[in-house]
Amino acid sequence: MRHPIGEASLVFLIGLIFANAATANANRNQQLDAYFQEQLQIQKVAGATVAVIEANQIAHTSAFGVRSTASENKMTADTVFQAASISKAVTAWGVMRLVEEGKIDLDAPVSTYLTRWHLPPSLFDENEVTVRLVLSHTGGLSLPSYVGFEPTDILPNFEASLSGDTNGSGSLNLVTKPGDHFAYSGGGYTLLGLIIEEVSGLSFADYMQAQVLDPLGMTSSSYMPSQALLSRMAQAHDLRLNPIPNYQLAAQGAGSLHTTAGDLARFAIANMSDNPVLSRDTLREMHTAVIDTGFGNQMGLGFFVEAGGQLIGHSGSNRGWKARLQFWPAAQAGLVILTNAESGEALVSNGFCHWNDSFQIALLTANCANRAEQLGLLNTVGWLITTLLASISLAITMRLLSNILINKRAFRRPLLTEWRCWAIATIILVGIAHIAFFYTGLGVWLVAGIPWGFSVADHAPVPIQYAIHTLLLLFAVIAASFLLRKQPDQ
Asked: What pLDDT score was predicted for residue 8?
C-alpha cells in the first residue's frame, strides 16, 4: 500500500528541485544580460543581440543598445543583422544538400559543375580543386575577403564578381597547390554559390531559401533580403559609433546572409539534432576537422572546430558587423552573438568567455586565459612605453625650458645647409608617416591587405593609444630641441 504522505513529500521534493533549477537559470541569465550591458559600454558597441541554447532549445534571448546611434531606436530580439562569414556555414549546408541528393560529388573537380565561369589559367592544376577542398579552405584559392558595395549599387552577378568586379577586393585565382595547406577564401564560397546555381537551376538565394532556410524555420533570414526584412535591420557603425552604410556583398555565398540571433540559434540546433535538410552522418562529416588552420583551431567542411572537435562554429566580420556562432553537440548547448559595430569583436570574444565560465562549458577556458594574458601583457607594455616616452619628453622639455630661462639658448631657424635643418625635416616626415600609419586605414592596409581597414590607433587598447600619442609628442620635442641655438657670449 502506497503511503500518501510519502508520495506528497516526493512530489514536493521534485517540485522544489525544479524550482531551484529555474531560479538558478533565471539568475544566470540575469547575470549574462548584466555582463553584456556592461560590455556594450566598455567596448563602445552600438548594439547586440544574444541567443543561448540549452538542451537543444533556445533558452534565452536578449537585445542590448540601439539599432542606430542616429535614431536611438532600441535593439530588439527580432532585429536583423548581417551574419557576415557565418553565411559560409549555411552555404555549406546548401552544398551538402545537393551532395545528399547525388547531384554533387564532394571529390569531383569544381570544373565539373561550371559552365558560366572557369578558374583562370595558373601554375597549378585546376582539376585538383575539388568541392571538398573549397569547403575546407584548402583548395589553394585566393580572395580571402570582400570590401562590399554601397547600398544603392547594382550588384554584379557571380561570374563578374569572380572575375574581379568586387569594388577593389580582387578576382578569384588558383594561387597554391590544392590540398597543401589552409588558406581562407571567401572567393571559394562565392564559387560554391555559383555551383549551387548551376546544379540546381535556381538562383542561389532562392535555392537556399527553399532548401535550407525555410525548412529549418529561419523565417527571418535571407541571402537576398526583401524590403520587409530590411525594415527590421540594424545599422552598421564604425569604431567611433558613427553610422556607416550597410554595405552589400555580391559574393552571396561568402557573406551576404541577413538573419537574427534566434534564427542562427535554430540553425545551431539543427546542426545538433534530426532536421529536414541534412542527415546526422552528413553533419558529423561537416563537423569533423580536416586541417589545422594555424590559428588555434581546425577547419571542417564549412565550420571551424575547437576544443578537440567538441566545439563547432563560425565567426563573421563585415564592415560594421561582428558576430559569432558556436555550439557543443555533445551537450546540446550553444551561443549566438551579433553586433552592429566595428568595435564588436572584443564584446563577442569576451561574451563567449563569459558563457564558457558562467554556463560551465569549460571548452574555451585555455583560449580565454591566453587571451586575457595577452591583453594584460599588451596593456603592461603599453603603459611602460608610455611612461618611458613621456619621461624622455619631459626631461628634454625641462632642459629646453631651463636653457631658455637662463638665456643660454634661444630659438633660431637653422640654415638649409646645416644638419639640424635636415634632421628636423626627417623628423617631420617620420611624424607624418606615423600619423598616416596609425591614424588612418593605411596601417591595416599595409599589414593585413584590407583596403578599407580601420585606424590602428582607434582599434588598439588604451595604453597602446597613449603610447602612440606620446611618441608623437617626443617627435615634436626633439624637433623643437634642434631649433634651439646657443646664445652668443654677452
From this structure: 62
**Cα 279 to chain center, whole Å?**
29
User: What is the fold of 28-363?
Assistant: Beta-lactamase (3.40.710)
- Rounded to 10°, the helix 261-271/86-100 angle is 40
Look-up of cell digits 631658455: 404
**Nine-digit cell at 11?**
512530489
Residue 277 phi, psi (nearest 5): -110, -55
Helix, strand or coil for residue 297?
coil
Q: Name the pLDDT band for 485 (thresholds 50, 70, 90).
A: confident
11 pLDDT band (50/70/90 cuts)?
Answer: low
**Using one digit for the tens of pLDDT, what is the confidence trace for 359-378?**
999 999 888 988 888 888 88
Strands 321-328 and 333-339: antiparallel
Q: Which three cell numbers stand for residue 76?
A: 530588439
- Cα dist from 331 to 23, 325, 482, whole Å: 21, 15, 67
Lowest mean pLDDT among 23-32, 299-308, 353-362: 23-32
Listed in order, the ranges of the chain carrying CATH 3.40.710.10 are 28-363
Taking the CA atoms of residue 403, residue 405, residue 409 and residue 412 in that order, the dihedral angle to the nearest 10 degrees is 130
What does the pLDDT look like over 65-114, one tens digit per residue?
A: 999 999 989 999 999 999 999 999 999 999 999 999 999 999 999 999 99
How does residue 191 score in pLDDT terms, banded at 50, 70 and 90? very high
Does 17 have pLDDT greater than 50?
A: no
